[in-house]
Amino acid sequence: MKKIEAIIRTSKFEEVKTELKKIGIDFFSYWEASGIGNEHLREHHTYRGTIFDTQYISRIFISIVLKDVNVSKTIDCIEKAAFTGEIGDGMIFTYNIEESIRISNGARGEASTAGPGDNIKN
After folding, report:
1. Angstrom distances, CA of residue 102 to CA of 25, 69, 94
2. Percent with pLDDT over 90 in the chain
3. What phi and psi values does residue 59 have, to the nearest 5 degrees?
4. When you count CB atoms within 10 A of the terminal residue's CB, does the N or C end of the chain come out lower?
5. At what angle are helices 13-22 and 71-82 packed, to 10 degrees?
6. pLDDT number for residue 24
7. Distances (CA, A) of 120 to 15, 46, 90
8. Residue 71: CB partners within 8 Å, gap ≥ 6?
9. Are 81 and 19 within 8 A, CB to CB?
10. Edge-to-edge strand order for the sheet containing 29-35?
């Protein structure tokens, strides 16, 4: 099993969510995050006389645990949906998961992830 974490632009979240649903990922966790990335290399922006600090940019952090067989398809989906071609599109990370336990029924391992990603379309 793998865990995929993605940090994406807030403006691309709905598109990523829609595309994940299309390939069968119907469950994942997400939350708002802030951070500093390569955007700090750009100058501050001025709009109508107000200076905006682009150093701290709001992002969405997505976390998905799924079976190994579904990892490539899921990463490709996120990468394509989140892409703008600009600095600050985000990052995708993958991790090995040693153990997974579904609290409601005690299922362990891949059986505990039944549901999310089981419907991934080829």
Report:
1. 18, 20, 21
2. 63
3. -135, 170
4. C
5. 150
6. 92
7. 17, 44, 23
8. 2, 4, 94
9. yes
10. 29-35, 57-66, 2-9, 90-96
Measured CA to CA, the distance from residue 93 to residue 75 in angstroms comes to 9
The pLDDT value given to residue 74:
97
Mean pLDDT, range 105-118, rounded to an integer: 78
Distance, in Å, from the CA atom of 61 to the CA atom of 91, rounded to the nearest integer, reads 10
Q: What is the pLDDT of the chain when averaged over all its residues?
A: 85
CA distance 25 to 115: 9
Q: How confident is the model at residue 35, as a pLDDT? A: 75
Q: Indicate the domain borders of the chain.
A: 2-113
